[in-house]
Design goal:
Chain A is an all-alpha fold and 87 residues long. In chain A, 89% of the residues lie in helices and 0% in strands. Chain A has two helices and no strands. Chain B is globular. Classes of the chains: A mainly alpha (87), B mainly alpha (256).
């Protein structure tokens, strides 16, 4: 039986869940771009600092983890938001 | 269904059925048991370590003393300075409490990080929020504390109204929120990655006989990720503790 009303309803539901999935992917992907670059900068500069001044490596490492934590939080907001989005 | 593998919805991975007192506010499930176990482990770890104090520490006492020394040297003295040493018991307990909840992620037969539910991270973050506000108000007075918090030093007066607004949001709202989300989302992400590779291994292992060798690759990655999650558990506990130290330290010594 091809009931056009039922088919339309089913199609709308599938469209909605498909768009939700795309939206989740875009939210997390977009949220990961900036922190990816940021963490790269933080760690790269920390390695430069440690290589130039190995005796300060302990302090630099602690500060590096702090910087990573602050930067990473933005990506994690996106991660959580992608679960909050529901179709 | 992703590529023919039936991936369970996220509620199946994080919500556990009630064991006792079902459908009451005091319902106890696996997550609650993990929290209670972590409290008991933290308590007995330091209780046993401090029971007979030997001059040359061995065993549990040595472990406890070296970890206290670690928190003292690399968290408190780095972030708060010598006058923050009064917070040593609080920070050490918090470090171990968070760490023991996290490490249940890789304990066989449990394999669920309690912090993948937001309850405890949110509560600890609110505790930290109250703590650094109270310390700041006690140290600098109410108006001095708010002024030092929202007005960064050495800013031109023109952009001050905008900056005060941004700083207020970032200090009093984003700080506790991001502290909770950071711990919660890291542990949830780790749990989901382990689940993904476990399901992948099981699905390939359950396929046709000549294809079973393919299960070796996700399984090897699963083992490697387990080791990585040990690192993440310790690192997140460390980051949670050091950020607490940073926030309390900022309330104690405002930037001039």
């Amino acid at each position: 039986m091809l009931d056009p009303v039922m088919l339309a309803a089913q199609g709308a539901g599938e469209l909605q869940s498909g768009l939700t999935a795309i939206g989740r992917g875009i939210v997390y992907g977009g949220a990961a771009i900036g922190p990816g670059i940021g963490i790269g900068l933080v760690v790269g500069n920390a390695i430069t600092a440690m290589a130039r001044q190995p005796e300060a490596a302990g302090t630099v490492r602690t500060t590096m983890f702090l910087g990573i934590a602050f930067t990473e939080a933005l990506a994690l907001f996106g991660f959580v938001l992608s679960f909050i989005i529901s179709g | 269904m992703i590529l023919g593998i039936d991936f369970p919805p996220i509620t199946h991975l994080t919500a556990w059925p009630d064991i006792w007192f079902a459908d009451t506010p005091f319902a106890i499930n696996k997550t609650v048991l993990i929290f209670v176990a972590s409290v008991l482990i933290t308590f007995f770890f330091f209780f046993i370590a401090g029971r007979q104090r030997r001059l040359v520490p061995t065993g549990v006492q040595g472990l406890a003393e070296s970890s206290i020394d670690f928190v003292r040297e690399s968290i408190i003295l780095e972030t708060m300075g010598p006058d923050g040493l009064g917070y040593l018991p609080f920070l050490v307990t918090m470090f171990f409490f968070v760490f023991f909840i996290n490490i249940f992620e890789i304990i066989p037969l449990v394999q669920f990080p309690g912090n993948a539910r937001i309850a405890v991270p949110l509560f600890l973050a609110l505790l930290v929020w109250f703590m650094f506000n109270i310390v700041g108000i006690a140290r600098q007075g109410f108006f001095g504390y708010v002024k030092n918090s929202v007005i960064p030093p050495g800013v031109p007066k023109v952009i001050l109204p905008l900056l005060v607004f941004i700083e207020f949001i970032s200090v009093f709202i984003v700080r506790p929120f991001s502290l909770a989300i950071r711990l919660f989302a890291n542990m949830l992400a780790g749990h989901l990655i382990l689940v993904t590779f476990a399901i992948l291994s099981a699905a390939i292992w359950g396929s046709a006989i000549y294809f079973k060798i393919g299960a070796l690759f996700p399984f090897a990655l699963l083992v490697a990720l387990m080791a990585f999650e040990i690192l993440v558990s310790a690192l997140q506990a460390f980051i949670f503790t050091i950020l607490t130290g940073v926030y309390i330290g900022l309330s104690m010594h405002p930037e001039h």
